[in-house]
Fold this sequence. Notes:
Shape: globular
EC number: 3.4.24.70
Pfam family, one: TOP_N
Number of strands: 9
Strand order of the largest sheet: 3-4-5-9-6
Keywords: Hydrolase, Metal-binding, Metalloprotease, Protease, Zinc
CATH architecture of the domain at 8-147: Up-down Bundle
Strand content: 5-15%
Amino acid sequence: MIDQAPNPLLHLGFDLPFDRIRPEHVQPAVRELLAEAEAAIAAIATRGAAPTYESTLEALEKTTERLELAMTVVGHLESVASTPALREAYNAVLPEVSAFYARIPLNDGLWNALRSLAETDEAGALDPARKRFLDKTLADFRRHGAELDPAGKARLEALSRELAEVTSRFSQNVVDASGAFELMVDDRARLAGLPDSAVAAAEEAARAKGAKGFRFTLHAPSYVPAMTYLEDGELRERIWRAFDSRATSGDFDNRPLVGKILELRREKARLLGYQDFADLVLEDRMAQSGANARAFVRDLRERTEPFYVNENDALLGFRREEDGQGAKAIQPWELAYWAEKQRRARYDFDEEELRPYFPLPSVIEGLFAVVNRLYGIRVEERRDVPVWHPDVRSYSILDADGSLLCAFYADLHPRDEKRGGAWMNGLVTGLHRAGAKAPHLGLICANFTPPSAGKPALLTHREVETLFHEFGHLLHHALSRPEIRSLGGTNVAWDFVELPSQIMENWCWERDALDLFARHHETGARIPEALFEKMIRARTYRAANAMMRQLGFAEVDLAMHTDFEPKAGRDVMAFARGILQAHTPAPLPESSAMIASFGHLFASGVGYAAGYYSYKWAEVLDADAFSRFREEGLFNPDVGRAFREEILARGDSAEPAMLFRSFRGREPSLDALLARSGLLPVAG
């Protein structure tokens, strides 16, 4: 019997029908939406009348809205509920969609209409947001090949299509390689040192697979405790090597894909007249060029390095105190283990002591209480909403007057068919025009410690920070008031986009905020003062190593996209390993190939490629911005209102540097970040 039901991807409303979307819906829906968008663009490009803002820019933005939502939904499902059939369908349409988007700025009729609009009296009288949209669109068209000759345009379209295919395959290989690994341990005695919560989780993971014993995977809730606490060095080494060499063998080997992606990106940049991919990507970001980004990274590294050397000397000295002066240099799979032992000895602090105080339901309630105090908003759970997995929850964000600002989904635990990490996606951007305001729709995903042994999910403090971080991104989307969809929410420069997320992490370290939600899951007691003080004292423990790790990722990213010549016969894994070694205290083995699973850089056409430095750039902004809350009141409603109005609500309606100055009253300073990290030299 033929299914006569309408294709849900062609009828996407606000509450998305995640429970009805099937792999067989993808290709017919996307191809119909592609044809619809192509026809709409052709109508703009061939319109004979004099161009107006409404007939060109506004019309252009509407042409891709339905296609973009459908592809976002399908791409999301492929990342959280992947099946072979869905992956096949997604892979079939992705090159076509990528080629379509690549063709938009190459359309001569469209480019001529936009240039003609820019010369009209109407363009000269546009309000600031519309003028910014026009200027950014013209620059974006140039940066994407509008002024190339026909042969150049054809090659650029082919490059975009191939990049989409290769980066999608890279991402899928990481998911598959991560899911393929498991380490089964039969002997409970080999788990000495591992916290009871991690032992229970490993036992639950084995039971879920119909096995006895203890199952370890490369998902963070399994991997991190194993590397931090397992006394059995052989087990730690096996897990570390598997994690560090993910996607480097068999059907999931990403090593040739990394070189290919770099080659395609370099060719694309040169075709468009840029020296390298970093300059192409960063032209419209706060850093503006690869050289400026590298100077920023170099400056932070120089300030950090003396502290980094001292930390590593101290850790090796600590090991030799414990194991004797003949103890060998610390290996990569020993770093987290010995660092945790040193932290316990120095601060009498074990992060596992905090876990009972962070049951996920209470953390979520506390997060909502914090943003209520800061921004006057209220978050409530939505019931009976279609979702993609039973674990998923949905919520509404309401303004002080009760109006709906945003709805969102939360998918917070790992599954084998779900990619790792944590992220936020905007799904629907509601426009605010002529006094009317439409709500937004978004989602947050993570891979937090799941419930086990009859207990709620008990999070680490780092997982709490991650939840606050992703919710900060969501607030940027939810509290945006865009008149223009392309300038709304998180559609900002990538070295600014992490400011709203990273600033939220600060409240996870404040007693007044923690007391809103950090309660023991059995007794309801708040974190004891002595434990809180130890946590604060240990905050900057090995902060220089944490800084250098991130700077290493930033430097290897920039170096690969500026210095590395893909066709020169060099081994990109060895090239990257050499840079990372300079930022890593333990000797990396020749098999080390973490960039083969570095999705930030290689899982999409651009993503964080040449932009990983953005995390540290935005951390400078967040530390400085948060210092205003520290100065004027942690929950000061006036400061919260200012951050909401000057940063969150504005999206990309003005230059990010101007938005920061509006909130902070001055240019940002590195000192707040260095002080927070304990990396300012002591005077005298």
